Amino acid sequence: MDKQENPSTTLPLLSTSRSLTGEAIEEGIQIERNINEFKHDQLRACLVQQGKYNNWGKRVFVEEAKKQVWLAGPLILVGLLTFSLHIISLMMVGHLGELALSAASMATSFAYVTGFSFLLGMASALETICGQSYGAEQYEMVGIHTQRAMVLLLLISIPISVIWSFTEPILVALGQNHDIAAEAAPYAQFMIPSLFAYSILQCLIRFFQTQNIVFPMLLTSGITTLLHILVCWLLVFKSGLGSKGAALANTISYCINCMLLAAYVKFSSSCSRTWTSSFSKASFQGIPALLRLAIPSAVMVCLEMWSFEMIVLLSGLLPNPALETSVLSISLNTTSLVWVIPEGFSGAVSTRVSNELGAGKPEAARTAVYVVLCMTVSESIVMGLILILIRNAWGYAYSSEMEVVTYLASMMPLLALTNFVDGLTCVLSGNTLTLLPKGQLEDVVGKR
Description:
Number of strands: 0
Low-confidence stretches: 1-20, 47-54, 435-448
Order of helices and strands: HHHHHHHHHHHHHHH
Strand content: under 5%
Shape: globular
Structural class: mainly alpha
C-alpha cells in the first residue's frame, strides 16, 4: 500500500521552492545587468585605448538625441495643442473688450493656482512610477498605477470645485477690483466640470507617454483643438454667453479629448499589456503610497506655476488693473506657450531615464540627461530670438487695443530671457523624481 504524503508538509516545501525560484530569477536578472555594464565599460576602455572613443561617443549622443526627439516632438505638439485651448479662449474673449479679457485672465490664473497646478503636478508622478514599471517589464502595473492616479485626482477635484464656487468673494478678499472679480467668478464656475476631465486627461497622457505611445495623443489633441476653435467661437459670439462660453468650451474640449484617448485604450492592441482590465480592487489600493510621491511632485510644479500666476493676481492691485492684468496675462501665456517645448523635452527625458534605470542601465540614463541639456540650451536661444523679432506684432492676436499691444512689445525681450532660464529649470526638475531612493520607489512601483 502506497504511503500518502501529508499536505501539511508538502505545501510549505512547494512554497519554499517557489520563493527560491523567484529569488534565483531576480539574482539572474541582476547578474545580467552587471554583465551588460561590465561589457559597456570594457568597450569604452578599449575605444579610449584605440583613440576611437570620441567617434563612438558622438554616435551614442546622436542615437540618444534621435530617441528623445522622436518622443519629445509629438509631446511638444500635444502640449502646444492642449495649452492652446486656453489661449484660443483668451484670444476670443479679448476681442469682447479689455474688462472681459482681464476678468478671464484673472479667472484662469486663479484656476491654475488653486486647481490645475495641483492636478498637473500629481499626475506628473506617473512619469516616474509608470516609466520604471514599464522599464522593469511590469506592464500590468502601468495600468494599475494610472487608475490609482485617476481615483486620487478625481477625489482632489471635489474640494477644488468648492473653492472655485467662491471665486468672487475670495478675489475681493485678496483686494482685487470688484468689477473684475464679478466678471471672473462665472468664468471660473463654468470651468468646474473641466477639473474632472482634466484629471483623467493628464493621467492618460502619462499612461501613453511612459510607453512611448505618442502619436495617438497627437491625433486626438489635433482633433480637439480644431473642434475647440469652432465650439469656442459659437459659444462666445453666437450663443450670447460671452466670456462664459469660452470657459464652457474648455470643458467640452477636455471631455472630447478624454473620450478619444479612452476609446484608443479600449480598442487598441498596443495597450493590451498595460491596461488589462477596467477599475478593480487593485486600483483603489496603494493610494497612500502613491500620494507620498505625488505630493512632492505637485509641490515642485505648483511652486513654479504659482510664481507666474501669482503675478497676474497681484497685477489686479495696480492703479490700472484692467490694463496691467491683460498685459501680464498675455505675457505669461506667451511664456507658458514657449515653455511647452522644454516641458516636452522634460517628459521625454523623464521617460528615457526612468526606462533605463528600470532596465538597470545607469550609464544610458546619464547620457540621456546630458543630451537633453544640450538640446534645451539650443532651443532656448532660438526661441528667445523669435520672441524678440515678433514683439511688435504679437499683441494683435489678443487685443485690438493699441495700449495693450505697445505695452506687450516692451515686455517681450524680458520674456526671451526668462524662457532661457525656465527651460533649463524645467528639464532638470523633470529628472529629479526619477532618481528616487530605492526603498521609496519599491514602496510605490512594487505596490500591488
